[in-house]
Amino acid sequence: MVYLWGGMLLIGIVYGVLAGNVDEVTKAFVSCSGEAVSLCISMAGITAMWTGMMKIAENSGLVTELAAKMRPLIRFLFPKLDTESKAAHYICLNFLSNVLGLSWASTSSGLCAMKELKELQLQKENAEKNTEDSGKKDAVKNSSMIASNEMCTFLIINVSSLQLIPVNMIAYRAKYGSADPTAIVGPAILATAVSTAVAVIFCRIAGKYKKVSP
């Protein structure tokens, strides 16, 4: 990403210089920098509010109750994952945040979920090391660098991100003067529902036919 964004900036600057638009490039840098700071401040307030709401819901036990209702879904998406584990808890929290359109607020729970899934993978591999013969130990050791089915499934569904209330997009539209900021709700639900359905189907098929290394 560093090379990608750095290359895009460099190409833009070089093209501006060669086209004789150095003044416009300079003005764009100054104005866009100020606009970025203003946008970050505006979104920070919205993100802080909704993150706080999610924290209150978590401390009050509401998230736990909702997570319990999501166990059949978690069991369907992650058949080998214990629904009582910390990983399942963070996955539920991440899914709830994404459903509310709080993609920024779901980052921390997503990172925690991936960390817990990695810990479960390492525990499984350590158990296999104790049971497998010496000829397979190297294969088990190398597999620790490969994402598990659960990690891949979580990442794909997280990216597809079903959203019932796209809070961030509504905030963007409101800030930039949209006459009807909430008009995006319907199309967002339809688009993310389709993308999530495709992601679930893909994960089920990929998980079924994935070859396990000997």
Quickly describe the structure.
This protein is mainly α and 214 residues long. The protein has 10 helices and no strands.
Describe the protein's architecture and organization.
With 214 residues, the protein is an all-alpha fold. Helix content is 76%, strand content 0%. The chain has 10 helices and no strands. Helix 3 crosses helix 5, helix 5 packs antiparallel against helix 6 and helix 8 runs antiparallel to helix 10. The longest helix has 39 residues. The protein is globular and about 70 Å long. It comes from Blautia intestinalis. Keywords: Coiled coil, Membrane, Transmembrane, Transmembrane helix.
Rg calculated over all Cα atoms:
22 Å
Terminus-to-terminus distance: 35 Å
The number of helices is 10
SSE succession: HHHHHHHHHH
* Average pLDDT metric: 78
- Low-confidence spans: pLDDT under 50, at least 5 residues? none
Q: How many beta-strand segments?
A: 0
Oligomeric nature of the chains: single chain
Structural class: mainly alpha
**Roughly what fraction of the amino acids lie in strands?**
under 5%
User: Percent helix among the residues?
Assistant: over 70%
Shape label = globular
Largest sheet: none
Write the layout of secondary structure elements.
Blueprint (H helix, E strand, L loop, with lengths): L1 H17 L3 H39 L1 H8 L1 H7 L8 H14 L7 H25 L5 H6 L6 H12 L6 H9 L9 H25 L5
Helix pairs in contact: 2-9, 3-5, 5-6, 6-8, 8-10
What features would you highlight for this structure?
Nucleoside recognition protein; transmembrane; mainly alpha; transmembrane helix; globular; 10 helices; 214 residues; single chain
